[in-house]
Amino acid sequence: MAVHALVPVLPAMTLAVLLGLLAANLPGVADWTAGRARPGLDFAGKHLMRAGIVVLGLKVSLVDVLDLGWAALLLITGVVLAAFAGTYGISRLFRLPPRVSLLIATGFSICGASAIGAMAAVRRIRQEETVLPVALVTLCGTLAIGVLPLLVQPLRLGPDVFGAWTGASVHDVGQVVATAQTAGATALAVAVVVKLTRVILLAPMVAAAGFHHRLGAGAGATLPPVVPLFVIGFVALAAVRTTGWLSPAVLDAAAVLQDLLLGMALFGLGSAVRVGQLLHTGARALLAALASWLLIAVLGLAAALMMFPQ
Fold it and tell me: How far, in Å, CA of 307 to CA of 39, rounded?
């Protein structure tokens, strides 16, 4: 967070993953992250991630989302569903395991690492299997920060269109802000509302995955709840935010708390990544992620141009 304060263009959550990667691979620190510190880092990656998702609900105002209009809401929903299906299909085409493909599709289509954590919980996916999807979604979201602003002039995009494109196609909320702010306040305002509309879809997508998991489970299997408690908490806090009862000071404090919780969680997940192992096993995953990133960028741009015809 200190680095983010000094260099605002670098999102704090991206930095958290990168610092975790450094901690896992630098001599002298790597043994500590793999040994004595591992239980605490695993706790952060699982439980603090869920707490951060709950607090994320305070960013979502249904009033702001509904102000977009039903046509825009349907477009954004269509982008999320098409991105999810397309990313899952691309991942399987590159022969990635079904669980990893599911997590990549969830993270890329909805809201990055937070969505990956939620989906992993409802499908009882081991934390070790979330490491690669989180690394990929962080990499591609960071790539968007550098690439998308360079395309504004060649594509002749207005601030409304660029904001909607960013909100519809960039993965993490922090990455959306870092990308959209390069085009001014109007682009940033549109991007945040479009992005939070995607975030709202986290709850129904996770619920649908939980229901599907139950249908496929054998008799007598131990099943997680269809909607995990932390997702219910996310929806509840979104409802509280929508009432307008909370003061700006409370919302600002909640935003800091969310960044702390998710930052610690992402550091914990990043600290489980060994670069050598990632390079050995992640080449196909990286190609799948880049193809998925391109797909979502195209879908998001098409939706943005339909929302704000130029």
Answer: 47
DSSP class per residue in 13-70: HHHHHHHHHHHHHSTTTHHHHHTTTHHHHHHIIIIIHHHHHHHHGGG--HHHHHTT-H
For the stretch 157-211, pLDDT in tens is: 999 999 999 999 998 888 898 899 889 888 988 999 999 899 989 888 988 888 8
* Residue 43, Cβ density class (10 Å: 0-12 exposed, 13-18 middle, ≥19 buried): middle
Amino acid at 23: A
* Residue 27, token pair as written in the block: 């001599």
229-243 and 49-56 are packed helices; what angle lies between their axes, rounded to 10 degrees? 30
The residue behind tokens 């399987």 is 92
Confidence of residue 21 (pLDDT cuts 50, 70, 90): confident
